[in-house]
Specification:
heterodimer; A: alpha+beta; BirA Bifunctional Protein, domain 2; 2 domains; 7-stranded mixed β-sheet; 12 helices; 9 strands; about 20% strand; B: alpha+beta; Phenylalanyl-tRNA Synthetase, Chain B, domain 1; Phenylalanyl-tRNA Synthetase, Chain B, domain 3; 9-stranded mixed β-sheet; 5-stranded mixed β-sheet; 17 helices; 32 strands; about 30% helix
């Protein structure tokens, strides 16, 4: 038998081996007790004496080469077997892991908004939900008996004549400015309350985020820049933003800020009432009367403030069509977030 | 005014100038603009005011007709008497006498216009007063002069108990806080709000008295709130009307009445006029541009203001003196003019810039730590709920959770659900849990972090809460603090390598969650102590910071929860803040191996495992590094009234590898101790 032919054959066989089991079969075929090598060794006594020595050496060399080849192949196969495909398990079976809980969608949106403003250098603060009439109204340039108060229907507390449930997060402006001097860059998330009959878009409790920046040389154009960056960040970089003049007692000039409708991209659809725009927040330059209440020098300091409803943003972001879902806390709802 | 742009373009321009056009509808040859008018701009509550704005945004010239005071022959003059009891209530009152009017239906054009404005046609006289209200923004009222006793007008407060029937046929009980227009004897109108039935203009009316006045806005507001009504007239008075328009409106109405109802002017009388004060404001263009971040030249500013009716003079290079017209009572400060300039210049034209925000690390709230707590709980599989802070009293009673404090009540709830501010989160979570059980959820595991409120004299001010409102009042104090509540119920099921496991939650599950939370928060000194009926107290640094409960049957029945345990916890976060420490101190990794030995034993049910573990820990010092219960079982092999436990002991020394012999000696002594002191039986 031609020893070189055996070598070629085994190399060809090895190429087709792709499992340890097939390799073992190949090893038995060549190196087993009745394998080819054994056969060759067994044929030695039949040879002429002078041929025996050199043939024996060649067979031995072949055996060593085969062993090396098989070893190499085994190593490479062993490495391959770490692939999950080679493990004896059905990967279609469910994975096993502890089950995670979920943050409420309102918390998710608050966290996202606070994080965007934190990156810009704003601090996050809270304030109490029970507030004084002064912080909620008078300190914000909202006169006691004026129609501008009609926009802020308010819950009052029995037995506590000057206390109420804050109807917006703006009182934290007054609270913070009383305590600290500029520069101030603050955002305030929190619950607010307004007596309202409950329906798909109204609740007596909801969440707002208030933001304000007070320093020397803060300009209306800065407000536009900050809100534009924020809105692109929270919605999408291709939305358009527009500032519309509006009236809030605590800011002047004041603006309502719209974004291009997320659904129709500004063409006009039922979601935006065919306008192409969605009203998203209120903003403006802090009114000098607000600064006067906290003894800030109105010649030196200017500032802007803005406020937005969290539920509205969450509804737009997640496509939720009924505001009551947020407070029903149906696990089938919560688990989607 | 000649408007050259389409109604749609006009609507867009108005919206972008601050008069938001909510809807635009074609109505025959006309277009109806529905505009949302902000409360600071009563002058926009009229066709004239909107037209003035259109002039400013389009540059078109506004042509305002002039009205002349007619000459009245002396023999035709009919005298009336006006007395105003308090000038503060009514700063201007004028009465025009128009005789021999023919009351009848209005011409079609007038009817149509009023209809488009959403106003019902009554008769020509009433229609004309309404028309002028919409055209010029000033409310007027016409009385049947012959029905006014003594042909006299008295502007006074109503007397207590005084009554009248108003034009809407409603009997009204008046009072001293309501300003009325009376004749010699009795009320004939509620000033600025609605006329009275007695002197109503009807088909029989021949002579009228036309009122045009300026009333105190706050008084009108209070009165209409008290009477629970809103009228077009009151809406304008409480926002503020002005003297000049009051005079023009009266003349304009007279002219129309003469034209359409063939009346004859027979006299005009007004209260002494207060001096009209055209306020002057100094405006620096530099100020305008500094606030807006723009570079608008002084001349452009002057032009914008003049388009809005503000005359101004450039006094020096950096100062404008601006005269405020009478119809702009909302303008008194330079910042008011900045807004006017910005509106007409266009918010869109103002660039977007980014401010240099100076960092202020000294200001910070609790959000970071609260978020951290939330994340730990979410990692432990809990779902965050947000429930209303206002609840109904019944829910509190139904939950049977004793708080020992008075709930804070809402003065003006709209419904039962808004009656009280909750003193605890637990009732809301029980309700939320019940709701989810009703939705066929097998396992409910929720938490909420929110403020709770309590009142009553015994509420103490917590030292950590100087910033929070704890306020004294006649009735007591009020406390607001952040609370964490967790509610668990049902069977949680999860896959393991051996298949599905279903596990009914117990107080121990909740204890485990709280332990994990405390460990993550770096709170070391915590403890759970049985407080009898009150539940299990959660102690942090030896102070009770919260409570764990297993709802009793009465409450479960009240919520209609069947065959399930409800496990609850509530922690006053204010009581644990000062013990939270997210800092860590690294200890060297052990250099020598540890030896673990387990003890499996049976122990009587009444024995405290806490004491048992403490005894092991004390005995095992200093080599015993950790002792924990790793398994427990009750079942066939365990005698009645006992439980089987496996406790794992980890021994290790810092300076050498421990030998089997020394550990066996120590471990055996621990086992003996347990046998002696706790009567355990080794298994």
């Amino acid at each position: 038998m031609d020893i070189n032919l055996i070598q070629t054959q085994i190399e060809a066989d090895l190429i087709n081996v792709n499992s340890l089991q097939a390799l073992e079969e190949l090893r038995i075929k060549y190196l087993g007790r009745r394998g080819l090598i054994a056969e060759l060794t067994g044929s030695i006594p039949k040879l002429a004496v002078e041929e025996r020595g050199s043939f024996g050496k060649e067979v031995n060399a072949l055996k060593n080469r085969l062993l090396n080849l098989l070893n190499d192949k085994e190593k490479s196969l062993a490495g391959d077997s770490l692939k999950p495909g080679n493990v004896d398990i059905d990967i279609g079976m469910p994975g096993i892991a502890p089950v995670l809980g979920t943050a409420h969608p309102i918390t998710r949106v608050i966290d996202e908004i606070c994080s965007i403003f934190s990156h810009m250098g704003f601090c996050v603060l809270e304030g109490p939900e029970v507030e004084t009439e002064h912080n909620n109204f008078t300190g914000l340039n909202i006169p006691l008996e004026h129609p501008s108060r009609d926009a802020f229907d308010t819950f009052y507390l029995k037995n506590y004549p000057d206390l109420l449930l804050r109807s917006h997060t703006s009182p934290v402006q007054v609270r913070t400015m009383k305590k600290h001097k500029p520069p101030l860059a603050i955002v305030v998330p929190g619950r607010v309350y307004r007596p309202d009959a409950v329906d798909a878009s109204h609740l007596f409790m909801f969440h707002q985020i208030e933001g304000f920046l007070v320093d020397e040389n803060v300009r209306f154009s800065d407000l536009k820049g900050v809100l534009s960056s924020f809105l692109k960040s929270v919605f999408s970089s291709d939305i358009k933003m527009r500032f519309r003049p509006h009236f809030f007692p605590f800011t002047e000039p004041s603006a309502e800020v719209d974004i291009s409708c997320l659904i129709c991209k500004g063409k006009g659809c039922s979601a935006c009432g065919r306008k192409g725009w969605l009203e998203i927040l209120g903003a403006g330059m802090i009114h000098p009367n607000v600064f006067k209440q906290v003894n800030y020098d109105t010649r030196k300091y200017t500032g802007f403030a803005f406020g937005m409803g969290i539920e509205r943003i969450a509804m737009l972001k997640y496509g939720i069509n009924d505001i009551r879902l947020f407070f029903e806390n149906d696990l089938r709802f919560l688990k989607q977030f | 005014m000649n408007i050259k742009i389409s109604p749609k373009e006009l609507a867009e321009k108005l919206t972008m100038a601050g008069l938001e056009v909510v809807s635009l509808e074609e109505a025959g040859r006309d277009f109806v603009f529905e505009i949302e008018i902000t409360s600071n701009r009563p002058d926009w509550l009229s066709i004239l005011g909107v037209a003035r704005e259109i002039g400013a945004v389009t540059g078109e010239k506004l042509k305002i007709p002039a009205f002349k005071e007619p000459k009245i022959k002396a023999e035709e003059l009919k005298p009336v008497k006006i007395s105003i009891l308090n000038k503060k209530d009514c700063s201007f009152y004028s009465a025009r006498v128009i005789c021999e009017v023919r009351v009848g239906p209005s011409p079609l054009w007038l009817k149509e216009r009023l209809e488009l404005l959403g106003c019902r046609s009554v008769n020509n006289i009433v229609d004309i007063t309404n028309y002028i209200l919409f055209e010029l923004g000033h409310p007027l009222h016409a009385f049947d002069l012959d029905l006014l006793a003594g042909k006299e007008i008295v502007v006074r407060r109503a007397k207590a108990g005084e009554k009248m029937v108003t034009l809407d046929n409603q009997p009204r009980l008046l009072g001293n806080d309501i300003l009325i227009i009376a004749d010699k004897d009795k009320p004939q109108a509620i000033a600025g709000i609605i006329g009275g039935k007695d002197a109503e203009v009807t088909a029989k009316t021949r002579n009228i008295l036309l009122e045009s006045a300026v009333f105190n806005p706050v008084l009108i507001r209070r009165a209409r709130q008290k009477l629970g009504m809103q009228t077009e007239s009151a809406y304008r008075f409480e926002r503020g009307v002005n003297l000049e328009t009051a005079k023009v409106a009266s003349l304009a109405a007279q002219e129309l009445i003469c034209k359409l109802a063939f009346g004859k002017p027979c006299g005009y009388k007004s209260s002494t006029l207060p001096k009209s004060s055209g306020a002057l404001i100094n405006l620096e263009p530099e100020y305008v541009n500094r606030i807006l971040g723009t570079n608008i030249p002084a001349l452009k500013i002057k032009k914008i203001l003049s388009g809005l009716g503000f005359d101004s003079k450039i006094r020096s290079k950096n100062r404008l003196v601006v005269k405020v017209p009478g119809f702009r009572q909302d303008v008194s400060l330079p910042i008011d003019l900045v807004e006017e300039v910005a509106r007409i210049y266009g918010y869109t034209e103002i660039a977007q810039t980014l401010p240099a925000i100076k960092l202020n690390a000294s200001i910070g709230g609790k959000k970071d730590i609260v978020s951290y707590i939330k994340n730990v709980l979410i990692g432990l599989g809990l779902h965050e709920a947000i429930t209303y802070s206002l609840v109904d009293r019944d829910l509190l009673a139904k939950s049977g959770i004793k708080q020992g404090v008075q709930p804070v009540e809402i003065l003006n709830p709209l419904s039962k659900e808004q009656e009280v501010l909750r003193p605890t989160l637990l009732p809301s979570l029980i309700r939320c849990l019940t709701y989810n059980l009703d939705q066929q959820q097998e396992y409910v595991n929720i938490f909420e972090i929110a403020d709770v409120f309590s009142g009553g004299a015994d509420v103490a001010q917590h030292p950590a809460l100087s910033d929070r409102p704890v306020r004294a009042s006649a009735q007591g104090r009020l406390h607001e603090s952040l609370s964490l509540s967790i509610a668990l119920c049902g069977r949680r099921s999860f896959l393991t390598g051996q298949g599905l496991i279903k596990d009914e939650v117990t107080v121990l599950h909740l204890k485990g969650i709280l332990e994990s939370l405390f460990n993550k928060l770096g709170i070391k000194d915590y403890d759970f102590r049985d407080q009898g009926d009150r539940g299990i107290g959660i102690f942090v640094s030896q102070q009770e910071a919260g409570i764990m409960l297993n709802l009793n049957k009465k409450v479960l029945d009240a919520f209609d929860i069947k065959n399930k345990q409800v496990i609850l916890a509530e922690i006053d976060l204010e009581k644990i803040y000062s013990f939270i420490s997210l800092g860590r101190q690294f200890s060297d990794l052990p250099r020598y191996p540890a030896i673990t030995r387990d003890i499996s034993f049976v122990v009587k049910a009444g024995i405290s495992i806490k004491d048992l573990l403490a005894a092991i820990t004390a005995k095992g010092q200093p080599l015993l590094r950790l002792v924990e219960v790793v398994d427990y079982y009750q079942g066939k092999q365990i005698p009645e009234g006992c439980k089987g436990l496996t406790v794992s002991c980890v021994y290790r020394a810092d300076d050498r590898t421990l030998t089997e012999e020394e550990i066996s000696l120590l471990h055996n002594s621990i086992c003996s101790l347990l046998e002696e002191r706790f009567s355990i039986k080794l298994r």
